[in-house]
Structures are given as structure tokens and as C-alpha cells.
């Protein structure tokens, strides 16, 4: 049962090997970045404890822990704007999840496609690579057929 001062405290059925890899904040939560699977658009950020992650991994729908309401919520249950799970990955430090979804409708509670539309661009200076830096992502891979000739 959740404790309103420290966050969720439910006993989870999450695989103990996975649970051991998670680095949670003081409230027992891990950030979950939600991304549209086919376009790469970052839709939103939510929070998961072990139980929310377990539900997400085993039901095919994204479940979060609401820090404001102190309860679990499954995206789309009231709005119809569901998030259907395509994949879930853990980052190298174990402190963030990447949840790739098929988003139906708006991802943001404001009704916009992503939660990053309303806040808007902050006008950051666009940087340049330092002189002499080679960006391998812009270098084409060699043609394997040419290498064999």
C-alpha cells in the first residue's frame, strides 16, 4: 500500500534480477521516458516503481506511479489515449527506462501529442563539433560488395 510521504511500497512480482539492476530515487521510483516507436518522438516522462514496471512488462500497456495522486495509473484508461508497449529498455546506469510505445491520441494531459510542445523551445544555442572531430554517424558505411572485389 502506498505511503503518501515516501511513495509506493507495494510488494512487486518484478523479477528479482531486474529489480536488483534498478537504481531508484529516494521515493523508490525510476524515470520512464516514453517514445513513439516508429518516429522516435519523445512523448512524455513518467515515473515507475517496481510494480508499475512489472505491470508494464506483463500487460502490454504502460502503467505509472502518480506522485501527485499517490496511486498507479494506466495511460489511457480515462482518456482513451492508450500507450501500447513495443519495447522497454533499461539504461546503462539502471536509473532510467526507455519505453517505446504505439501512442493512440495525445500523450500529454494538456491534449497535445507530446508533453514537450506546451513548454516550447528554450532557445538553446546550437553547437558545432570541435574542429577535427569526425562524426562516425555521418560517415557512410563501406559497401561490402566493393570490399570483396
Short description:
By secondary structure, the chain is an alpha+beta fold. The chain is built from three helices and six strands.
Distance between the termini: 67 Å
Q: What general outline do the C-alpha atoms trace?
A: globular
CATH-derived architecture of the domain at 16-119: Roll
| N to C succession of SSEs | HEEHEEEEH
CATH superfamily of the domain at 16-119: Phosphoribosyl-AMP cyclohydrolase
Strand order of the largest sheet: 2-1-6-5
* Helix/strand structural class: alpha+beta
The radius of gyration is 19 Å
- The unreliable regions are 1-6
CATH topology group of the domain at 16-119: Ubiquitin-like (UB roll)
> In this structure, how is the largest beta sheet organized?
4 strands, mixed
State the helicity in percent bands.
10-25%
Region (Disordered): 127-149
Subunit structure: Homodimer.
Binding site for Mg(2+): 91, 93, 95
Family: In the C-terminal section; belongs to the PRA-PH family. Belongs to the PRA-CH family.
Overview of this protein structure:
This protein has 149 residues and is α+β, with helices and mostly antiparallel strands. It has a domain of 104 residues: Ubiquitin-like (UB roll) (Roll), CATH 3.10.20.810. The chain has three helices and six strands. It has a four-stranded mixed β-sheet with strand order 2-1-6-5, with helices on one face. The chain has a two-stranded antiparallel sheet with strand order 3-4.
